[in-house]
Amino acid sequence: VPEEQQLNYMVYNFTENREEVAYTFLMTNSSIYSRLTLSHSGFFQRLTSIPPAWGWSVLWSSPMDRPCDYYQFCGPYSYCDTSTSPMCNCIRGLNPWSMQQWDLKDGSSGCVRRTPLSCSGDGFVPLKKMKLPDTTMTIVDRRIGVKECKEKCLRNCNCTAYAKADITNGGVGCVIWTGELVDIRNYVVG
User: Fold this and answer.
1) Nearest-CA neighbor of 77 among 148, 185, 181?
2) Is pLDDT above 70 for 2?
3) pTM above 0.90, yes or no
């Protein structure tokens, strides 16, 4: 959560292993209360309460009121970028699925390939400073590097993208997407 700031009265822990992916926090000041909520409409918020007021204040909320923060604002094979107009953009090598919708600044129908996928001789377009696509249709292999990841993806005719599983310390592991690429956004900063 990029908006989460380090607070001296809260200790955060993120766990990721073969068994689980979990986020926990511990309040080190027993007079301050905090809670995470996920509403039915998809808002994820951190609320805090400090006596004597006892009311709940929103410390951060996601998505913010930016369209790119909404799930799948732009359709398949397109990405959202708040610094462009329209905000939805096709990945290079693809065209809008519906030019009429695109002209009306509605990118929800997404993009389609200009040429059919041939499963031999195809390559990849590097995308930087991007939020990775939805991971519903992915394969993760933490034992191989990015070079092996690319080769594995090229051998799989259902592979649509690949990325490093962990970008810290030079990057390790492999994530391979085997379905439509959805919910991608560009980060201008960071």
Assistant:
1) 181
2) no
3) no
